[in-house]
Amino acid sequence: MQRLTVLGTGVLGSQIIFQAAYFGKEVVAYDINDEALEKLPARWEYLKPLYIRDLPDATPEKLDAAVARIRATTDLGEALAQAELVIEAVPENLEIKRDTWRRVGELAPETAIFATNSSTLLPSDIAPASGHPERFLALHFANEVWKNNTGEVMGHAGTDPAAFEAVAQFADEIGMVPIRVLKEQPGYVLNSLLVPLLDAASGLLMGGVATPEDIDRTWRIGTGAPLGPFQIFDVIGMMTPYMLNKDSDKPGAREFAEYLKREYIDKGYLGKGSGRGFYTYE
Question: What terms describe the molecular function in GO for this protein (predicted)?
């Protein structure tokens, strides 16, 4: 599959777009308004030095060629016209995703394969909205996709095995390590391991047990991990944990979401990509 359309140009969406283009795919970036698309050139300039830092084969010429393979539009029909694969990276809200896929199902080519990048929702909860559940599955990327390069491929009971393998092959072609998730699992493999850590960290913070810095320091020293949980929050960005927690029934989750909004999101501190989250970045 050579022609990719990515729906949503936020932190993960923009990374997926750039990663696919870097590995030679023709990519259409879709978002709902021009304001979102106008931020993309600055995003590419932000990503370029990170690729040079982390990937031995990255050169300015290769990175410029990647940007040249990206086209942006707010016209959904135009975005989907030639798509062989559609990857959705819109906010982590079931109704938003279902509504997006209803429109995609009406406009996309009959042969296009559909993949959600949802971190927590199951493909079977979203697939019927697309009108083509047999061509629907999940392809989940970790943040900083060029470096943390797992591509978790997860279908549902009605996913065509050929579509599953086509997406696994696509993941391999864009520099991912395909992780074949053999049955539906909320959170896939990665987030099934990661979310309990982040929940525990937010509980310690909201309970006044320790500061983010000391919680992170404890985790790094005690386990040898390169990042603590609040450093991970900064990499993920504040909007994802906010969306996941604001309507949650888990004890303390809504309080943590309100804290993130009040102390960080409302002040423009959206995480590492914005230059500030729990920590400050150059």
Answer: (3S)-3-hydroxyacyl-CoA dehydrogenase (NAD+) activity
